[in-house]
Amino acid sequence: KAGVTQTPRYLIKTRGQQVTLSCSPISGHRSVSWYQQTPGQGLQFLFEYFSETQRNKGNFPGRFSGRQFSNSRSEMNVSTLELGDSALYLCASSLVGQSKETQYFGPGTRLLVL
Amino acid sequence: GENVEQHPSTLSVQEGDSAVIKCTYSDSASNYFPWYKQELGKGPQLIIDIRSNVGEKKDQRIAVTLNKTAKHFSLHITETQPEDSAVYFCAAQTGANNLFFGTGTRLTVIP
To answer: Rg of the Cα trace of chain B?
Structure first.
């Protein structure tokens, strides 16, 4: 069974631009969560999608948004990029996203904002 | 919200020795505690997890213990090998499907 895949793996953008990252969950998984990883703040939860609906949201500004498609694939978008948005963006999938369910992470997309 | 603290931040051990990483959490409603290993250039990989109705769980050389009263849980790796070198993260989850992570421990196993 294929794992979680994320594209692209690396991305360089300039301040003010916007970016879209993509995540394909493990086959059969319907919950997709996004996390931001930085050296200073560590791993922080962005949001979670299930059945094309955002079900849970972390403490990030509205410039960070996402969506999920009917095949459970998910995208996240960051608008008006800032230098501080440079990070590794990780996607994790689980079956239905219920309590105590294991989340499996993808390799991440490394975003550099110049 | 939940706050997870993890110690130590770095740990060096000789090959064959044991390694212990400790985490504490603040929200008594947390009921799921996974541990992830992250190697350079890769995403976190689940190595073991424990749920709140269990005090200890073991999988070959890896074990996790949970003390709900004290709100702490620990990862134990025995007979360490060079391939165990990586960054390890503990995490805690409450009812919602989002994980709160510790700050990570960089484990180095010296051959």
So the answer is: 13
DSSP state of B82: G
A100–B97 C-beta distance less than 8 A:
no
The two three-digit tokens of residue B13, written as one number: 């051990």
Residue A57's Cβ-count burial label (10 Å; 0-12, 13-18, 19+) is: middle
A12, A23 Cβ separation under 8 angstroms: no
Residue A32 near chain B (CB below 8 Å): no
Name the residue of chain B whose CA is nearest to A108's CA: B43
Contact A50, A97 (CB under 8 A): yes
B89–A103 C-beta distance less than 8 A: no
Locate the DSSP E strands across chain A.
5-7, 10-13, 19-24, 31-38, 42-50, 53-57, 64-68, 74-78, 87-94, 104-105, 109-113
Q: Do A99 and B49 touch (CB under 8 A)?
A: no
CB distance A77 to A54 below 8 Å: no
pLDDT digits (tens, 9 = 90+) for B42-99: 999 999 999 877 899 999 999 999 999 999 999 999 999 999 999 999 999 987 778 9
What distance in Å separates the CA atoms of residue A107 and residue A90, rounded to the nearest whole number? Answer: 7
Whether a cis peptide bond, with omega within 30° of 0, leads into A8 is: yes
What digits encode the pLDDT tens for the residues A37-64? 999 899 999 999 999 999 999 999 999 9
What burial class does residue B74 get, using C-beta atoms within 10 Å of its C-beta: 0-12 exposed, 13-18 middle, 19+ buried? Answer: middle
